[in-house]
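Example record for the data management plan.
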Amino acid sequence: MKKQILFIHSAGPQGETQGSGRLIRYLEKELDGDFELRHPAMPAPEHPVYENWKRQIKEGFTDFREDSILIGHSLGGSALLKLLSEEKMEPRISALLLIASPVWGMNTNWGKEDFLLASGFSSKLPESLDISLFYSAHDDVVPFEHGAKYAELLPSARLRQIPGNSHLFENGLPELVEEIKRIKLK
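Corresponding structural encoding:
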């Protein structure tokens, strides 16, 4: 049986060659039939509103089986963390993989209020959730400091620093594929 993955896009354009599009195509190619990868279009990605994104995420997850994998790219990761820390998700999720996700409220440049996480959010996440963080060392959209902050807030998470400055990972992210395959083997 194929392991199910729900991938939530970054904000902004979501065409095949825009935003998370190239990273999704890369994952489809690299995961080659071993996984069922879903990537629903998010509502109003140019002007995201958390409640609308939450509805879309929950709809994309309705018929998932136990031990699914959630991947959030940039704002998509923020939306997943907020949802998982505020609501119990069924079926059980085995892993959350965040790629270049901002920590809203970290400073005045990062104040998108409807995506802010509640104080102590990490204690409300599912106990057995396997969390991995992927951040470019020199990302000029979401700096590596955001990954370091999440690693501090999520002590059981594994932080992977990716060489370079990519935010969209248009040419792929082999470390992500490696992590997904590791999770499948558990």
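Summary line stored alongside the record: The radius of gyration is 15 Å.
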